[in-house]
Amino acid sequence: MTEALPTLWFVLIAVLWAGYLFLEGFDLGVGMLMKLLARNDTQRRVLLNTVGPVWDGNEVWLITAVGATFAAFPSWYASLLSALYLPFLLVLLGLIFRAVAFEWRGKRDGDAWRGRWDWAIAVGSFTAAAGIGAALALTTTGLPLDADGNRVGGAFAWATLPALLGAAAVVLFCLVHAAAFITLKTEGRVRGQAERLFRRLLPVAMIPFLGWALLVQLDSGSVITWLAVVLAVAAVTASYRCSVIGRDGRAFAALGAGMLALVGSIFGAVFPVVLPSTLDAAFDLTVQNASSSPYTLGLMSVVACFGLPLVLAYQAWTYWVFRRRVSEASIPAAHAVAAL
Amino acid sequence: MEALEIARWQFGITTVYHFLMVPLTIGLGLLVAMMQTMWHRTGKEHYLRMTKFWGKLFLINFIMGVATGLVQEFQFGMAWSEYSRFVGDVFGAPLAMEALLAFFVESTFLGLWIFGWNRLPRLIHLLCLWAAVLASVFSAYFILVANSWMQHPVGVEMVDGRPVMVDAWAVFTNNTALVAFPHTVFGALAVAGAFLLGISWYHLWKRRHDGLDTLAADGTLTIGGSGARDAVDHRVWLRSARAGAVVAMIAFAGTGITGDLQGKLMFDQQPMKMAAAEAACHDGTGFSILSVGNLGAQSCDDITAVIEVPGVLSFLANGDFTTEVKGVNTLLPEYQEKYGTTLPDDPMYGERAGTAIDYLPVMEVTYWGFRIMIGFGAIAAAAAGAALWVLRKGTVPQSRWLMRLAVFGILAPFGANSAGWIFTEMGRQPFVVAPNPDPSGIDSVFMFTAAAVSPGVSLAELVVSLVALTSVYAVLLVVEVRLLFTYVRGGTASAMPELAHDDDHPGAPTGRKDDGDVLAFAY
Q1: Which of A12, A217, B37, B471 has the CA that lies 20 to 30 A from B256?
Q2: Predicted TM-score (pTM) of this structure
Q3: Which residues on B lie below 8 Å from A324 (Cβ)?
Q4: CB within 8 Å: B85 and A74
Q5: Rounded Cα gap, residues B233 and B226, in angstroms
Q6: Quick check: ipTM above 0.90?
Q7: Which residues on A lie below 8 Å from B164 (Cβ)?
Q8: Separation in Å, CA of A70 to nearest CA in chain B
Q9: What are the start-end ranges of the H helices in B322-394?
């Protein structure tokens, strides 16, 4: 039983990352679309309010994924975060600006004030998505790590093709996922724009993600993980089809399912390695040599069995409470304190 | 400068900054939840206004706590990878549990509270706030469990040179954590209390200054103004001021009692920290109120205590007035014998291998950190007591000077909190995980800070991140404070649009689902 615990935690961490990409995927995308899709302040507020009640909760999936890695695989956490020092710094700065901007944007009147925070949301969302994409791709394709798990090759040793591919994959996925989400969550002009964007973007948006998955498959894929890739392509195709026949909910869900299948295929293929070293396979961090003690993993398993379903339940309830569509007509006049 | 120094500055700056935001979040959150509970139970308008106004300030600040908390979780891996590898088996668990059991609840239910006005049934809406606020308290507990393990490692065994958790119960009921937790929550309430008092005092002063409230010769107060709004507002500020003062005084008593317990544990667990805080060279019983000499000299022999109260140090340490407390000169040889005189000849120490270990923390910091913490806390409590006396008839003096003092007084508990953290963290040096000579601790579990820093990360990376984070923090602090000022000046109407337009007939919002398909737009 205790031999299975590191594997269980590998699966759980993959689930947390997949959950993060699925949930924050669309709110990061909505953030980027603040500058790409919305034409005026009302439209921007429509976009903001589609994710308003949920974005903060979505972000906790990242915090939990990183925290769980620390608890279950300290060496993985230590090697990955120190090797990718600059990308994670960018992610942090992006998330700081984005969070503050969400909350403060409407707290004062003035085009300059709002304009600055709109940029903070858009650029912050972009850097966070790109940095996380690069980090996840490198987790699965490897970093130049020595026998002690430390990076060699300097501050930019991570700047490789897989990093770029991962960044593009996650950024584009966030954009198209957000377009599907906005189509599902809004009415009126914004919805029409999002729908058009979705159909135009979808055929190309998933290509980098697919490329990342194939890169990993060619290296260490199995029959099952190859099947997952096929499944993902089918799901993305189905998503397009659902959008054309006007089934917004299914289009959104199918796209998400396609992403989940790709993440599954990637993590499934690298298993049992959690962080490969590009210098020597003997330096690879694996579920066995990087994990915490069985005692700690056991404790954390009990906590996760109790906590994770609870999280899913109340987050689902939040989405249900705020299930109605948002339209420009439902945006009241801004109440900002400077007007008093 | 070396990478180690930069990494330590970064940790110190980001942690202290994070801890400027968090106590206000925890303390104000609890108070806003109580206000909304009062509104729910009595239906009185002034409680609703209090909830909305203080809730707005709470939210402006809350988000900074979230944003800066992210950095804390990442920087252990980024800048302190050797530390993470060494302690991950025991230290990562409370962090992960904080995210899974507390922070998820906090973020999700706060979103429900912000957007749930007029949309959720009233009771459910109230419970959402309570869930978020209690989760933030729970969050603090998990983080303090993690920090306390660095101060007092328990529940582990050394296996292959690394601590491995063998007793989770011991880790989560670490006596250091059980005392630090209430101490921190009281510290948060002290911040919130002074915040309420200072801002409410400003508004009460302004009402007198503007002639809204007048004081007759016989001392009776006439609550004036043009209508219902002004009378209700007067109640808002008076209630808030009184609540703030009472909370600040209770919080000071609470931090005092728990701080005393903490001190006694520290004398057992980290005697050098307390000796350094006292700038005490020799064994003794007296507590120094003022010591002069070169505290920074890292040798305490040229320090003279000018004012010293005999017996107090013994009381702080042991609860009596006569037990001699060990001074630096007694402790140094004990530490050197137990943990070595030089850093081991191990590549992990880099150029520092073989250099002498300085077991004495920076005394300027520990000595003054300890005194600023207590002094600022006491000032805030005394001010709260005085304010309560002045407020007993429902009015405030017209003195602009007193008003400014009350507003300025908001800063005292912030200063006390920061000083306390700097004292406790700097006092732990040169260890990142402090060894405990105390029999309940596991003496062999310790780690030198010099060994904890990421070996693969370059000086340039650390400098870039230090500059980037510090300047972003500085800019955001300025923006936050200005935003808070704007909303404070705007008063209750800044949080309730309906008041801005209709002075005499406040459209009392209710929990009815009257505007069914419209979200409560907060953004």
Answers
A1: B37
A2: 0.92
A3: 517, 519
A4: yes
A5: 12
A6: yes
A7: 293, 295-296
A8: 5
A9: 328-339, 363-390
